[in-house]
Write a structure and sequence with these properties.
By secondary structure, the chain is an alpha/beta fold. It folds into 2 domains: about 1-15 and about 395-470, no CATH class; about 40-385, Glycosidases (TIM Barrel), CATH 3.20.20. The protein is built from 13 helices and 21 strands. Strand 1 (about 25-30) and strand 2 form a beta hairpin. The radius of gyration is 22 Å and the shape is globular.
Length: about 475
């Protein structure tokens, strides 16, 4: 009888093969991401600056600003093994539109190549219109030279090149600040040119299921909430005209990185299916440190971010979060931030995958392909159990990093299975899985690290518990 019951249980728990997420069919319901099967989706990912896409080279004899690592199938496989299902991919206007109205089709194909590599591993890509210090001509990356000429006038700004050793100074240089002011004042209608370039990208990827969406502008320094709102709406509407399906992400003013809060809007964002994408660098760039290791220090910033997203009627995506790997309590900072993301139902992308310049903040000490280069403590802090897909609305999602126990409470809806990412490195002897107190048997996909199972039938609340075996 016991053998028969076990066989029945295995059949009852059997789940069909996993389907990759389709970025075109995700929507925002009650501040959460929901897919076409009515599952609540959680995205955990990473940022990657990719050679040939992150534009830091020159064709006029100036030295490159910095070396940027490549991205290949091995990178996508490693991301999947860590449980990442999202890549935030910074792209640059300077490479997309090097001359006014002339869009670089080869550049779009290089972006598409990364999207294809990610698609093969079930990873969605958020295409991020990125900038740092406004333009590679005067900073690190961003707008092309002809934009600076339109905003500031030819010959009125420094003609900089590499190596990049003074990014902090470039961010606050007079030419950089003047360019931001002119851009967000929409001098000479420059935002229309930017929106047109964004629409070119959206049109190229409108049919791609592996694209999550498009982010309007990285770390904007607008100086005015009204000016930033007008810009984000202009670009979001241009994207939506070119692509009706994918999500649009937008950020608050970069000053939030220092203040740990932005104004809570009084009205919803006027474009539907949006992600609010602040960066969280609490105790990193705000004049404080995480020396105490007190997780409560990060709470107010994340709680305010959740309130900001709710005000916009958007799902929350922490577009960047990270800390110097050499900082004291760096791994504890990551754990505290992920705990908050779990509790507040935030999606996220860690900064950064691999870095071979500047502060070398990556998950690897240099290239991701270098033997022995993985920062194992750092990747283990990120590779923790979580639920990428839940058939209903999540009520509780709490992971204890010290004991590797996960509690997932949800109100069931639909017939799709639960999906849990269960990293082998945290469960070397296996795991115990329970549904409402009853032990379940479900296999772990050895490639994706995902366990798929049904927890009961019909509506009602469910409690899933995961813990290490033995």
């Amino acid at each position: 009888m016991r053998s028969l019951l076990a066989a029945v249980l295995v059949v009852a728990l059997a789940a069909p093969p996993a389907r990759a997420l389709d970025g075109r069919r995700l929507r925002v319901v009650g501040g959460r991401l929901v897919d076409a099967r009515r599952r609540e989706i959680t995205l955990r990912g990473v940022n990657a600056r990719v050679a040939g896409i992150f534009d830091v080279t020159f064709a006029d004899g100036r030295l490159p600003l910095e070396p940027i690592p490549p991205f290949d199938a091995g990178d996508a496989a490693k991301m999947q093994a860590l449980g990442f299902n999202l890549l935030r991919l910074p792209i640059n206007w300077s490479a997309l539109e090097p001359m006014p109205g002339r869009y670089n089709r080869d550049y779009l194909e290089r972006i598409a190549a990364v999207v294809r590599l990610c698609a093969a591993r079930g990873i969605l890509v958020l295409i991020d219109f990125h900038q740092d210090a406004f333009s590679k001509e005067i900073g690190e990356d961003g707008a092309p030279r002809w934009v600076l000429d339109r905003l500031l006038g030819p010959g009125t700004y420094p003609y900089l090149g590499g190596p990049l050793t003074d990014l902090a100074a470039r961010r606050l240089a007079p030419a950089t600040l003047a360019a931001f002011r002119a851009f967000f004042a929409n001098r000479d209608g420059i935002q229309d040119a930017f929106a047109a370039a964004a629409a070119v990208v959206a049109r190229r990827f409108a049919r791609s299921p592996a694209v999550l969406g498009y982010e309007t502008f990285n770390e904007p320094l607008a100086g005015s909430a009204d000016a930033l709102f007008a810009f984000n709406v202009r670009v979001a509407r241009a994207i939506r005209r070119a692509d009706r399906r994918h999500l649009v992400a937008f950020e608050p003013d970069v000053i939030r990185n220092l203040l740990n809060q932005a104004p809570i809007p009084a009205h919803r964002f006027p474009v539907r299916r949006v992600l609010y994408a602040p960066h969280i660098y609490t105790d990193v760039f705000d004049g404080h440190t995480f020396a105490s290791g007190n997780p409560a220090e990060l709470g107010p910033s994340m709680e305010h971010a959740a309130a900001e997203a709710a005000g916009w009627g958007a799902a929350l995506l922490v577009g960047e979060y990270g800390i110097d790997p050499h900082a004291a309590n760096a791994d504890a900072w990551i754990t505290a931030e992920l705990d908050l993301q779990d509790r507040l139902r935030a999606n996220s992308a860690f900064w950064l995958w691999a870095e071979i310049s500047q502060g070398r903040w990556g998950l690897f000490d240099g290239l991701s392909s270098a033997p022995g280069g993985e920062r194992v403590d750092r990747t283990t802090a990120l590779a923790r159990a979580y639920a990428p897909a839940v058939p209903g609305r999540v009520l509780e999602h709490a992971f204890d990093a010290a004991t590797n126990r996960l509690r997932l409470g949800y109100r069931a809806r639909g017939t799709a299975p639960v999906e849990l990412f269960v990293p082998a490195r945290r469960y070397p002897r296996g795991f115990v899985l329970r549904c409402n107190g009853r032990t379940l048997r479900a296999p772990r996909d050895p490639v994706r690290g995902v366990v798929r199972f049904h927890c009961g039938r019909g509506p009602g609340e469910r409690l899933v518990e995961l813990e290490p075996q033995g």
